[in-house]
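I hope you will forgive my troubling you with a question about protein structure. Could you please explain, in whatever detail you think fit, how the structure tokens follow from the sequence? Thank you for your consideration; the sequence and its tokens are set out here.
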Amino acid sequence: MVTTLAALEAARGVRPAGYVDAILAAGRVDADGVRHHIRAEDLAAIRARFGVAEPPLPGLGAMARSAAGAVGRVVGAVAAGAAVLVPAEEAARREAICRKCDRFRVSDARCSLCGCVMPGAIGKWHLAAERCPHTPPRW
């Protein structure tokens, strides 16, 4: 399993004391100091030890509808000549909100409400037409 150090640090406020430190101790950090690697078995053992269960993803149908809707909104923005991507500062603001959310899955950087993959050049945080699936949306 691979996650960023930023994601782990953000989890400190929402996970039990010692949880993040246990993950850091059990894995390794890339030379660039950005990504953290841990074996899936080790992560599962740490989760069990601390009683942390990540929320499940929605069903495949719900995730397919969410992805199709996002594609449609991006196509609509392009057709209308609107911005497709948000500025880097807005993407960072959205990311910070998501990483503190109890519905954010640290292990695969996905939202458990919509199933979207969050980081990356075209992750949901970066798309201007996308919104947080919470009611009301958090961003």
The chain is about 40% helix and 10% strand. The chain has a mean pLDDT of 88. The two ends are 27 Å apart (CA to CA).
